[in-house]
Amino acid sequence: MSGKISGRILVVDDDESIRALCREVLTVAGYEVDTAAHGADGLSMLKSGYGLVISDVNMPEVGGLELYSSALREHPQMKDRFLFMTGDCSKLRPIASKDLKCLLKPFRISELLGTVDTIMTRSIEGRGRDERGKRLEERFEAHIECDIIDGGEDGREFLAARALNVSRHGVRVSYEGAALKSRDVSVFMSISRLSLHRTAEVVWSRRLPNGSCACGLKLNEPVPASQLIILNRRQKASAKS
Q: Is 132 inside a domain boundary?
C-alpha cells in the first residue's frame, strides 16, 4: 500500500522566532515544513494539503481558534490535525474542550517533537482490526537492507535480509536460507538518519517460488511516525526518478 498521509506541516504564528524554531526542529526531524505569519495566510495555504497545522492561539485579525473553525468548513478531514501553542493559560480550557492538543509557551523541543509524532501517528496506525484480526495500519514500501538475528536452539544465526514494507508495528522481510527457527528475533534496519534495532516476533514465515524466504515480523516497539513519513517521501521520489 502506498502512503496516504502527508508529512507536510504548516506552522502559523505571528512571532518570527517561533516560526523559525519550529521550522528548524521539525525539518531536522524529517518533516516538510511551511510557515505563515497570519491566520488568514495559513487558511489560504491549507488547500495545498497538510498532515498537521501548528498554530498560535493569539494572532491579529484571525486567531488560531478562528483559523481552526474556518479550516474545518473547507477541510473537515483536518479536525484532528491541529496543534495549538499559547502563552495564555486561560486559552487551554476551550482548546481542551474540543479534545485538541496544545503546547504552553515556552515549551521544550522534546514536547514539540513528542506531540507532533503522536498526532501524525494517528493516521498511520489506523483504527482497529479487520475480520481476520489483522491490524488496520498503513504499510510503506521499504526496500531497505537489514540484518536479522535468529536466536534459535542451534545458536544465534545472522541473516542478511531486505525489508519489503514497514508499518508502525511490523515489517515484512525477504532473505536467502531456511525458514526462521525461532519465534523471537532481533532486526536491525536504517531509515533516513535513524538506525533502528527492534526485537520482534515471527508471525509467519514461508518459502517463495524463487527459492528465497519471506517472513512477517511483529515489532515489540513501534517505529517513529516521522521516520515512516521520510520513508514514504523517499519511495515516492524514487518512483518518479
A: no
